[in-house]
Amino acid sequence: AAAQNKVTINAGDGKTIINKHIYGHFAEHLGRCIYDGFYVGETNKTIPNKNGVRLDVVDALKKMKIPNLRWPGGCFADTYHWKDGIGPKAKRPSIVNTWWGGVTENNSFGTHDFLNMCELLGTEPYLAGNVGSGTVQDLTEWVQYVNFEKNSPMSNLRQQNGRATPWNVKYWGVGNEAWGCGGNMKPEYYANIYRQYSTFMNPQVGKEKIFRIASGASSDDFNWTETLMKNIPVNMVEGVAMHHYSTFGWDPGVKGSATDFTEAQYFRTMQQALKMDEYIQKHSAIMDKYDPKKRVALVVDEWGSWYEVEPGTNPGFLYQQNTMRDAILAGATLNIFHKHAERVRMANLAQAINVLQAVILTKGSQLILTPTYHVLEMYNVHQDATLLPIDIKSDDYEVGKDKLPAVSASASRDKAGKVHVSLVNLNPNKSQEVTVSLKGLTAKAVTGRILTSAKVQDHNTFESPAKVKPVAFNGTKLNGDELTVTLPAVSVVVLEM
Ligand code: AHR
Questions:
Q1: Ligand 1 mutation pick, 28, 250, 305, max ligand atoms within 8 A of CB
Q2: Is 496 in the active site?
Q3: How would you classify this enzyme at the top EC level (predicted)?
C-alpha cells in the first residue's frame, strides 16, 4: 500500500488529560446483564462468587481497568424504586420489568449489592436516579442513604441493613432519556424538573460534592442540549449526557445480524459510529456558548452498536454477539472521545455483560471476552494520560459513492512518560501503511499489541473463546523521528514508546 496515511504527533503540545471515566461501563436490569451476568446469587455453588457476584467477571473487569459503572438503567432507572431493593432479600417485593421483556424482577440485586460490587471491582458507581416515575423525596433520600455519615433516618436505615459507613457515591444521573422512556418530556419541562430534583439532591450531604448528570440528547437532537444549557445554570449541573448508538434504525427487523453482515452493512455501521465526532462537536459548540469555561462535562453515558438479537433469544433481552466490526467501532470511538477530551470527560459503553455491545458474554459457568473487551483493555494505557494532539491525513475507504477515512488514530503520554498511539484500520480489504511523525519526541524503541483477524465477522464463541485476542505487534520501523507502521486489514493496534 502506498503511504497515503500520515499522523503527526505534536508531543510538545499536550495539555488536556484523557479522563479515565470515558472508559466507563453500564449495567442495566435488562436481560442477562445483572441476573445471570454479574450476579448469580449467593446460594450458587457451581459458579465461584462473592456475595453472588461472579469472580471471573470481577477478575476480567479489573484487568480491563473499569473506571466507573452506571446502574440500574437506562430505561429501567425511571421505573426503579430503590427502597424495593434494600433489606432482607426474602422480604423484597417483586415487580415487573416493563421495558425489558416484561419479566419479573425480584429485587434480589439492589443498592447494597451494587455498591459493594463496585468496591470489589475497584470502580466508581454512577447511580441513575428515577425522575420519570419517582419523586423528589425518593431521590434525595437515596443520596442520603448512600452518602450521609451522621445520624439521620436514611443513614440509620442503611446501618440497620448492614452497612456502617457511607459509600460516598459521586456520580448521579437525574433521570434517563427524559425525552423518551424517561417520561416523554419536552426539553423545557425536563429542564425545570431537573432544576427541582437537583436542588434537593443537596450537594452537601456527603464527604464531597456530588456530580449531577442531566439526562441528555439522543445523537443529533441539538435542541435538547441547547434548551438544557439555556435553562439550567452551570452551577446546578456537573454533566450533561448524550446517547448515540450505531444502528440502522428503530423499526422492527432493520438492524441486521451481529455476525452475519455484508460489507455494505459493515460500512454503514462505521458511518454511524464516526458520526459521534460530528455530534460531539456540535453539542460541545452549544455548551461552549453557555459554558465557555467548560465547567460542565459532556457525558456520553450510552454508546455502542445495536443489532438484532441472536436468533432464538428473547427480543427484550438485547443479547447480541460481538465481532471485529465492534472492536473497530470501539477503537475508532475511543479515539474520537480522546480528541474531545476537554469536554467529554465521561462515557459509558452499553452494556457490560450479555447486552448490546458487551465486553463479556456468559453461558452457565462459561465466560468469554469479546473483541470489544480486548480493545478496551489494550486502550486502558490512555486512561488519565495527557492527550497529545495529532494531525492526521488518511487514505479513503470507499464503498460505492461513499467514503470514510481508512485510519483512525490517537496519542497520549502517561504519568511515567511513556507515549501510546492507538491506530485503527477501518478498511477491511486493505492493509494501511501509516507514517507517524514524532514531533518533539525521541523514541528509543517501539513495542505494540494488535487485535486482528481474517474477517470483520470473526468473533469469539463458547466453543472457540480465544479466536480473537491481542498478540504482540511487530509491524513498525523506527527511523529517527519517523515511524512507519503497517496496519493489517481488520486491525486495532496500540503502540508504546
Ligand atoms: O441500553 C439500552 C437502552 O437504550 C437503555 O435502557 C436506554 O436508555 C436506551 O434507549
A1: 28
A2: no
A3: hydrolase
